[in-house]
Amino acid sequence: xxxxxxxxxxxxxxxxxxxxxxxxxxxxxxxxxxxxxxxxxxxxxxxxxxxxxxxxxxxxxxxxxxxxxxxxxxxxxxxxxxxxxxxxxxxxxxxxxxxxxxxxxxxxxxxxxxxxxxxxxxxxxxxxxxxxxxxxxxxxxxxxxxxxxxxxxxxxxxxxxxxxxxxxxxxxxxxxxxxxxxxxxxxxxxxxxxxxxxxxxxxxxxxxxxxxxxxxxxxxxxxxxxxxxxxxxxxxxxxxxxxxxxxxxxxxxxxxxxxxxxxxxxxxxxxx
Length: 272
Fold this sequence. Notes:
- By secondary structure, the chain is an alpha+beta fold.
- It has helices at 6-19, 21-29, 38-48, 127-139, 156-162, 189-197, 224-237, and strands at residues 2-4, 31-34, 60-63, 66-69, 79-82, 85-87, 103-105, 110-111, 117-121, 142-146, 177-181, 185-187, 200-206, 216-221.
């Protein structure tokens, strides 16, 4: 049994996704699109073999207790791998070139016990989901959704029915719609542990405090040698620091949000 903080979970998932044979194949022989997202930032570090400003490799984010959108001027450029080379290209620039064997890595905001994935969308056109989902389904190009178990909710379908930028009248923070993906390939800590060590993993508990907020506790079972290898690995990623908070100015933000257009003096203390 062991507990992972959200950042430790992201590191575990990052290492496991980067090691997948199909991901390596797409990276070296075709296109591997790494869309923005905090978990994807960890995957990107593992693929590049170097550190990046992970806190800037986001677009929509939940930060300082509210839903928010990081401004274009603060975002890191997304990375697309093509035949072993890392290109600073927006995912939309290569969508017409993707074929089966290529892979899109897409972050998620929710996951339910039935395997449904929820992706929040604050833009009128649905962001990456609006641009990619149907096109890639039509082509047969695989999308992998790396998502930590901290984002487990009772029902993505129920949540998706209620969301909507124009549907929601009041909020504390930004508002969004939710895309419900019922046929995506979900990759959580459980899949990460199974793929890296060939062991079975069970989600045992969630939550914590004193720096363990959002944590998940897992139990793993397998051959002693595999379990020992797993525990040694977990000890190696323990202490992964949380991401720094990078937030745009509310005064210049155009997103539908209860704080949009407000000056710093008008904001509550928890946003400063």
